[in-house]
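Residues pack. One example:


***
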Amino acid sequence: MNKLEFANFKQTAIHHARLRLRLLDARRRAVTFSHQPDKDALQRIYVINLDRRPDRWRRVRRELDRFRDRNGERLSSLVRRFSAVDARYMEAGPDLSVLIPTFTLADQLTVDPNPLLRIDAEARAREIQMTKQEIAVALSHIEVWRLIADGDVPSALVLEDDVFMGYGFAGALERTWRSLDHSQNGEGFDLLYLAFNEVGDVAPVAPGKSLRHLDSPGIWEASGYVISRDGARKLLDALPVFGPIDLWLNLQFERMNAYAASRPIIEQRIDEPSTNSYSVLPVLSQVGVITREKPLLPTAKQLPGPVIAVGDIDTGLTALGTALSMIGYTCLSDLDCLPTAEMEALLVGQGDRAFNAYVNIGSLDADAIDQIAATHPAARFIATSGQIPTPAATPNQVLRLTPDIKDKWAALAELLGVEYPAFPYPSTLDTGMRTLGNTAPSTFRHANTNLAFDSGPWILPEKHRLPGRVVLEADSPDPHVPAPPHIIWTTNSRIDERIWTLRDDTFPSNMALFTPSNVTQNDDEVRLELRAESAVVRDLTSGAIASVAPYRYGRFRAEFRPSKVRGLVTGMFLHRNGPRQEIDIEFLGKDTTKMLVNVFYNPGPEGTKLEYGYRGTPTVIDIGFDAAADFHSYEIDWQPEAIRWLVDGEIVYERAMWNPTPIPDQPLQFNFNLWHSRSKEFAGRLDAKKLPSTAGIRAIEIRPALGTDVRPHVRFSSDVMNC
């Protein structure tokens, strides 16, 4: 795991300084290497590199060629490129005799201990599924070990393709190499870490020594290490690997002669975004040891555009719009025309546009597309049908993404010059063109105020929000897709564990740990209680419940009474991760006369690890009474075309498509919780003297709109704009 991907500003600044400082290193003769068969020299370098990343291969060769071996030859004379296993082509699971794609929280804690967690029966039972990227990385390293084990050199340097040699590399490596035992009797060194991050109880380096022996776990990274032929054979004999490769290597130290340099002399770069996905991070977040969130953003540095996509129905247009959104485009799709101001700005080449990608827009006919090509030199054009004409632009600006193209991500990445996404390509059915209406926005008698919004590709500033309202025309439910249950619950019935889960986790910005014992029920209400109670990872405990079933659209109503304690937040909300989507009702204990509503939107199908946003798009509504004084009815009406929030049956607020976000479109779980926010700016300083505190729930009703896999057909209102 490259922990620098989660570094703070200071750590990142130091890293970039070291990246520049290496160029001032005057010593370029690395006498540890030799292209001659010298027994005391490194004679081979393997670089693990994806076929689709020739830029990284060229860069790492340039990095190595800053140095010469003991005979004056460039280090590239020793390099062998290994074509890395690519996660995008992994359809079947790995051979279980080679790799078991799971590990446990106990395995993680063995390598990276945390004072807040224990290695106990629960940690040993908590299984973590490796991501496809972790599996591909592990399989690549295993195949390199096979090459070394069967090869003609006594040892080799193994590098991933995102490394650089730090200042003083040649001298530090020479001192470290001389300290090793290079005996040929099978008892010499097996493994030497040159790139690493210390996280466990690793013994300190003795004064004046250039390396330390590793007899216990505690080293992250496998991006730069030397492995002997005997060491490679020992690792192959120990197969199968389980868990990420750097974790598993730690668990082999007791059977190997493993060493690490006194300091890292090879480092991983962070000057370009990574597509690695770390399976352990969501688990560490849930158990409460990650307390600082980091948004996972689209990885493109600079997106070319605008992007215009046209085609026939059922050729993948709606999926293409989702895919462009996942890359980081602000994409408008499946409309018969653009708003007048947007159309004019696009045609004349003005920069002040709401969107930078347009998919299946009826008003973008052949003449309009030719004009866009003339006024936007960086424009890109995509046709999903073979017979659709495209402008006479340069070939690298036009793509025919027809349904027969199997690897659509590869084609898009080449057209747009972006990193191949680590997420699955969407398979959404085509919606077809919808009609944009010119109806005035709704007005409400309750005052509302927007707080600070996140700034991102799926949030429009107020001046750019789409005009008009939308109406729903839903397809008939698919009889083969079971609809989620219609739930009516009151205090007359007990909490059914087949329908509700009592949560036993937390999240980074929550200062309380949820435990089932903090959810109690009497004849009048279900109580969520937050109390000052020391837990392993928090000093507060609280209660939360969540629906077992996810829902995709519907009406979610509850009668409840929030807590009135400063610093506490009472939430009724719909939520998911991967991608993160959320629709909130929250009451801040510092002022329960106001209701906060919020939407978090990230695009993509199930498994898309986009979790962008700390703030979301919060709006505060003055409801005209103190919600903490009594029970009232609150409702989220979530439909494909709009979200409406109701209080005691009255609509108090509404958001339509792209006002300011798209409408969440993935199945979400219904939740209640009571928590203490880490942000004093948001919720205020905790009034601990008023603890314990409770939030009460008296009734819940969930009326699902559709089955979770049913496609809604959305039509905008019939007042067509003059485009």
